[in-house]
Design a protein that fits this description.
Helix content: 25-40%
CATH topology of the largest domain: Rossmann fold
CATH class of the largest domain: Alpha Beta
Number of strands: 24
Distance between the termini: 66 Å
Strand order of the largest sheet: 3-2-1-4-5-9-8
Radius of gyration: 26 Å
Largest sheet: 7 strands, mixed
CATH superfamily of the largest domain: Vaccinia Virus protein VP39
């Protein structure tokens, strides 16, 4: 890159469509920062700092860290942010998304709940999921993450509108896969895949906006001559869910809720908060081996229609691991390692417990509609069960000798 690229970058930012993207992005960020009380913003791939300059000017309590890989961009950002650098409200780093964790830990700025911004960068990265996973793994609990990305639904629609036939668009999407598609140099990102990937890392979707829903199909001259009217129209349309798939870019904000592991007081027993994805179509919770699910299941069974006064379980396993989730209703699980005992209430499909070998487990207090799903690490083996509590205690003592 270099000065020529910087000049082209800022020339595009001054063009009607580039200016429109910037102004819409600024409005949505300003709305989010104002409503959430954000005090520190990390802008990854922040370019020459045009967005930060406007946000820092609007919010006097805001501080910002800009990170960009290009030295010429950093030099230009020094000019655009000079007054804020002088006030100690901004700092600049040259680096990529791979350097974020190091910069995040060494930055002179600190806030427990920063907003990390990743705008119009992910489309140019080949392994998008791995990049997002590495980037968000270092975010602290309660922080925010924002990403603007090229929307594959819009790009397919744009191809259809401007130059291609319907069969041609379908062939192109089929050859690339519906999940990801290349258009020009950038690779569009599928919203549902991204949300699922980030949910697995403990990020919960908050707000979503569409940027440039309709004006992308108009000429620069038309947009320029009707700029203010189009800006207001796009700002309103970008908040309407039906228009988001038509937007050239989608902007999503997430809250970091470091879902996952919470070791209980009982030796080896571990409770889990599982990801939750909600939208107008319903809710979804999940777990994957290596990411929240601590073993590969080889069997499952479902317990339901249990009278509320009945008790189930009342045994331990010598080698078997189990993972319990009450997918409907609720029940109580008592785990006991022979020395400590603890009761855990399972009352949500986003709550699970891993019961390892040699932990006595009992389930009781089932609600009338309770459905308990149990994943097991191996096939059924009657010899693996310890059904006598006295025998269990003796086995625990023998193991400790």
């Amino acid at each position: 890159m270099g000065p020529t690229v910087v000049a082209k970058y800022e020339e595009h930012a001054r063009s009607p469509h580039g200016r429109l993207r910037h102004d819409l992005l600024f409005r949505y960020y300003a709305e989010f920062i104002g409503s959430r009380g954000v005090k520190l913003l990390y802008d990854l791939g922040g370019g020459s700092g045009l967005l930060l300059r406007n946000l820092l000017d609007k919010f006097r309590a805001l501080r910002a860290v800009l990170i960009d890989n290009d030295a010429a961009m950093i030099d230009r950002a020094k000019e655009n942010l000079s007054s804020f650098l002088g006030e100690g409200r901004a700092c600049l780093y040259q680096g990529t998304d791979r350097d974020f964790q190091r910069i995040f830990k060494s930055s002179e700025f600190f806030d427990e709940k920063p907003l990390v911004s990743f705008n119009h960068v992910i489309e140019y990265i080949n392994d998008q999921e791995a990049t997002l996973r590495a980037l968000t793994s270092s975010l602290p609990q309660g922080s925010f993450f924002a990403i603007m990305y090229l929307n594959n639904s819009h790009e397919a629609f744009r191809q259809l509108m401007l130059k291609d036939s319907i069969p041609g668009v379908l062939r192109q999407l089929k050859s690339r896969g519906l999940d990801m598609a290349y258009f020009g140099l950038a690779r569009a990102l599928d919203a549902e895949s991204m949300v699922a990937s980030l949910a697995a890392e403990g990020l919960r979707s908050l707000d979503e906006y569409g940027i440039r829903c309709l004006s992308d199909f108009k000429s620069r001259e038309f947009v320029d001559s009707n700029y203010q009217e189009i800006l207001e129209m796009e700002f309103d349309l970008g908040k309407i869910r039906d228009f988001m798939p038509l937007a050239r870019y989608r902007l999503k904000f997430f809250l970091t809720e470091r879902q996952g592991i919470s070791t209980s007081g009982t030796t080896g027993a571990t409770s889990y908060d599982l990801p939750l994805i909600r939208d107008v179509r319903g809710s979804l919770s999940f777990a994957e081996y290596g990411r929240l699910l601590p073993f590969v299941p080889k069997r499952y069974f479902v317990v339901f229609d249990v009278p509320s006064r009945d008790t189930r379980g009342e045994h331990a396993h010598r080698t078997l691991h189990q993972f319990l989730v009450c997918v409907k209703g609720s029940c109580s699980v008592v785990v006991d390692d022979g020395e400590h005992k603890e009761e855990i209430r399972l009352d949500s499909p986003t709550r699970g417990i891993h019961v390892p070998p040699m932990v006595w487990c009992t389930q009781h207090n089932y609600s009338p509609d309770a459905v308990l799903l149990v994943l097991a690490s191996d096939a059924y083996d009657a010899d693996d069960y310890i059904r006598d509590y006295g025998v269990f205690l003796e086995a625990v003592k023998a193991r400790e000798r």
